[in-house]
Amino acid sequence: MSTVLAMLAAVLLDHVWGEPRRAHPLVLFGRMANWIEQRTYADRRISGGLAWSLAVLPCVVVLLIVQRYAPMWLAWCMAVIVLYAALGLRSLGEHAQPVASALVADDLDAARVAVSRMVSRDTAALSAEQVATAATESVLENGADAVFGALFWFAVLGAPGALLYRLANTLDAMWGYRTPRYTRFGWASARLDDVLNFIPARLTAFTYAMCGHFDGAVRCWHTQAPRWKSPNAGPVMAAGAGALRVKLGGAAPYHGAWVLRPELGAGACADAMSIERALGLVRRGVVLWLVVALLIGFGMWGSAHA
């Protein structure tokens, strides 16, 4: 039950406070990762693996040791704080809502600026539909990365699991690009993130199906996800698009060139309401996970005291 209560407390803290405004732990970690990159970089996979290990493993080991020898109440509080720092549910809405609001106000320039804070693609020439598509995709994918993945690894391995997952996810966002600099150096970061996300991504896809249009989500998941180049983003976004009954995917501009991507979902084209509905899907999914966790926790507590 302590794990379940910690999950509830962390989600509540995220709802009330959102991300820390000053000295966010992940920002500090990013600076440390940059420092490590400057001193270990070489255009080799082994260098990237070494950099990943130096950035992630000491943090996780220190947390393991501190929690092991801390009083139980302090270890629990630390677990809540770690999970709270790993979650980005409120932040997801804070980034996506301005895009939807700008689209509703028919202010395409403002919508492009707002969505540029969410995605890595070029946004200056996007149409309103393409802006809505980008934001909706980002909400669905980050629901897996910044919410459900952290909850999953916390439930499985406690605070060290959530920390390991979130740091690995951060390094994937920093180093996991297929660019000349990171194709080899970032290989380990990208592959380790794929491994850590394999189960959470599929649980997220199932969650979207449960909280939306189930048949559409499952059909899109199984027919469209295999065509997506990312083994984890494919199931998440295909199932999410099917659950929302909206069209996503398609061509998108990256680094000055349009990239042809498979279409995802089915139904209406994306718009401001698609973004709002995607946020609602993620939030309902979090409620579902917490209810299931409570039921499991009460069941285990009852068995132990029978």
UniProtKB/TrEMBL annotation:
<keyword id="KW-1133">Transmembrane helix</keyword>
<dbReference type="GO" id="GO:0015420">
    <property type="term" value="F:ABC-type vitamin B12 transporter activity"/>
</dbReference>
<keyword id="KW-0812">Transmembrane</keyword>
<dbReference type="GO" id="GO:0009236">
    <property type="term" value="P:cobalamin biosynthetic process"/>
</dbReference>
<feature type="transmembrane region" description="Helical">
    <location>
        <begin position="286"/>
        <end position="304"/>
    </location>
</feature>
<feature type="transmembrane region" description="Helical">
    <location>
        <begin position="146"/>
        <end position="168"/>
    </location>
</feature>
<comment type="similarity">
    <text>Belongs to the CobD/CbiB family.</text>
</comment>
<protein>
    <recommendedName>
        <fullName>Cobalamin biosynthesis protein CobD</fullName>
    </recommendedName>
</protein>
<keyword id="KW-1003">Cell membrane</keyword>
<feature type="transmembrane region" description="Helical">
    <location>
        <begin position="49"/>
        <end position="66"/>
    </location>
</feature>
<comment type="function">
    <text>Converts cobyric acid to cobinamide by the addition of aminopropanol on the F carboxylic group.</text>
</comment>
<comment type="pathway">
    <text>Cofactor biosynthesis; adenosylcobalamin biosynthesis.</text>
</comment>
<keyword id="KW-0472">Membrane</keyword>
<keyword id="KW-0169">Cobalamin biosynthesis</keyword>
<dbReference type="GO" id="GO:0005886">
    <property type="term" value="C:plasma membrane"/>
</dbReference>
<dbReference type="InterPro" id="IPR004485">
    <property type="entry name" value="Cobalamin_biosynth_CobD/CbiB"/>
</dbReference>
<dbReference type="Pfam" id="PF03186">
    <property type="entry name" value="CobD_Cbib"/>
</dbReference>
<feature type="transmembrane region" description="Helical">
    <location>
        <begin position="73"/>
        <end position="93"/>
    </location>
</feature>
<dbReference type="GO" id="GO:0048472">
    <property type="term" value="F:threonine-phosphate decarboxylase activity"/>
</dbReference>
